[in-house]
Amino acid sequence: MASIDNVFSLGTRFSIPENPKRSILKHATTSSFSARTQTRWRAPILRRSFTVLCELKTGSSSSGETNNSPAADDFVTRVLKENPSQVEPRYRVGDKLYNLKEREDLSKGTNAATGAFEFIKRKFDSKKKTETDKSEESVYLSDILREYKGKLYVPEQVFGPELSEEEEFEKNVKDLPKMSLEDFRKAMENDKVKLLTSKEVSGVSYTSGYRGFIVDLKEIPGVKSLQRTKWSMKLEVGEAQALLKEYTGPQYEIERHMTSWVGKVADFPNPVASSISSRVMVELGMVTAVIAAAAVVVGGFLASAVFAVTSFAFVTTVYVVWPIAKPFLKLFVGVFLGVLEKSWDYIVDVLADGGIFSRISDFYTFGGVASSLEMLKPILLVVMTMVLLVRFTLSRRPKNFRKWDLWQGIAFSQSKAEARVDGSTGVKFADVAGIDEAVDELQELVKYLKNPDLFDKMGIKPPHGVLLEGPPGCGKTLVAKAIAGEAGVPFYQMAGSEFVEVLVGVGSARIRDLFKRAKVNKPSVIFIDEIDALATRRQGIFKENSDQLYNAATQERETTLNQLLIELDGFDTGKGVIFLGATNRRDLLDPALLRPGRFDRKIRVRPPNAKGRLDILKIHASKVKMSDSVDLSSYASNLPGWSGAKLAQLVQEAALVAVRKTHNSILQSDMDDAVDRLTVGPTRIGLELGHQGQCRRATTEVGVAITSHLLLRYENAKIERCDRVSIIPRGQTLSQVVFHRLDDESYMFGRLPQLLHRLQVLLGGRAAEEVIYGSDTSKASVDYLSDASWLARKILTIWNLENPMVIHGEPPPWRKRPQFVGPRLDFEGSLYDDYDLVEPPVNFNMDDEVAHRSEELISQMYNKTVSLLRQNQTALLKTVKVLLNQKEISGEAIDFILDHYPPQTPLNSLLQEQNPGSLPFVPEHLRRESGDFVLVNHSTDVNAQV
Question: pTM to 2 decimals?
Fold first, then answer.
């Protein structure tokens, strides 16, 4: 490699800038080089600012023509083109190069004597340099100061205080050479920015202003003295904000220190403030003089005008108005004085010689007033005492006591007037979903209420009473309101507990009043909710030891029930009144109330089926803002046994979750979170398993889930598919596996292959532990093993699906309360149903045989499950790692893993991945929610590794 001298032999000169102020990118490069310098020199990259000027040599035209192309540029030229932001601009003035500041100083006219002075200085420096080169002895600063007898000037910075980080930053921003925004972006694109330093922005936001930055560039190999790696940059606030958003490299922000300062105000004013104050005072004096002059002129004019007006008014009043009004004033004053004189004479006559007082005394004495007042004294005393007593009693009443009303006692025995005269209950049959059977049964009542004459002509007796029974929340009250809303008739609604009061006879009175109101406004509907509080079965008073139960409270309740029985089917049945009762405890009702003639129809309102649940969810979803990507049919099919009230609560809970997560509408994830909160419970924040515990739980749950997917994929099994797996602790559980529910027929007619596949799914948790951990299994899968043991025994004994076919009834070995986390693996509770096939252990040999056959069946299915999971060990381990990383995984993701990790995939392919816990997969509902825009992390390419 050529030396530095070879470079200078090319005519290239280097000069180091002293203190540039701006970054103007101008490069002077040679278009051609001399033909005699063909040696290629690999110079180190110069990162600091430098200036390169290549002088043209004569006789090099031929070589210049060949080097015009970019590929023929020398190394230094290419460095200048690639790193324009690091080259400080230089300007040629004569034969000398100057930076921007030096060129500005030259333009001021001071360079006339500078040339001669610089020439003398260079001569002196060269002479001094030759003298110092000759002397090779060491020179110390103390010796120089000791020998020096002149004045010694020390820079004041030596005695100055240490600058803080913030002050040093401001100084560097001011002194360092400036870099433009375009240069910084070029350096950022080439990854040459080492550090970007800025100062913390204060709490007050400014729309205009500037922010300073210090840019540290990366060093490159080469001469360090020729590199400048530190620059300053000053940008507007908007440009600075845009730059900080765009720049993603290392940053350092200097914290702004807020300190209080207490000091003495200077005795003398600031010269600028003094000049401003004096100018303001002069202007104020001029304005005051102008205002005073204007006031004198305007004041004189106003005074003249006021004097003229007042003079005119005085002359008019004295010489015109007063002569005209004088006769009238004399007349009115004379009449007024005459009236006063006559009145005074009359008053004197009345009050003289006793006057009126003597007449009043005679009337009181001889008119009998005194004797009457003596008789009224005791009467007034009694009245005043009663008034004070009542006033004291009313003042002691509680705050929530009603206003004293004489008719309150009468209204106490009446039923509350809850009739809607127009039948405006606000509910129609269109608002009722999921209980189509009950609605069809009640259509006849609506027809009768709309047209009762048609039934009377045909001689048809409509059903007098209808009992609605069923679990809570299934829509019994809603159906009753829909009947009145469809028919448009008055609707009277009361609860069974409202007929019970502290006073005797109030319940019967309210029954009579309620039916009286309904008969007056017939056709009408009477609805009593929770009728079991009113019509409980009566006690048998003729049985032994039953008199103690027949107390006053029981007698009052039975009296109210008797009145209800009479109103329903007595001598006056009251045609045109439909009676509806609702209860969820039919077994408590009195048999006399349930007989035909009183309750002619008893309609069972059951929980809705899958179609009914879907209709209910659609009705409630129409009242909230729900995303179109939410699949309501999956929730309708996977939530068996849920009533309409619970489905309504699900939608409301999902809306609350969406608000809590600041979503614009209800998403699929919000519905899933709401299902988990209502079934399992909320997330337990304080409970978090360690890594080993999470690995065990994840292995067990993934083993159960992936076994079902493998059986569906390779054996076409008719079992549930996994919906999602979670290891987030909720409620009383540490992990959950949610399955998709099959149709109802699959649970009614279970076949042996289907039950054996379910047995393999239950054994999948323990099998997965053995595949991953070997014989070091844990009790994490004990919940699934208990169900598997009883399922195998029940296949042999009660369901008799294995030979020999012998019924051997026995009760379940343990009682379990199923916790719903999706479609249960115990087949809707039928797993622990003994079908009343329970017998005492008579043949103990049969018990031993059943136990032996159950053990063989479990071992056989367990070995098959272990073999199936060993073939897919890579997919199993990949699913476990993804679950540990994401805490929750969907069934679609499990299918994605099984597609990319087929059976017999080498385990090393998974272990060689950079991040085995990542998965480049987005579920379908998330893709729909994001508008078909999916961002997938391609850090791990599964297709390339499998």
Answer: 0.52
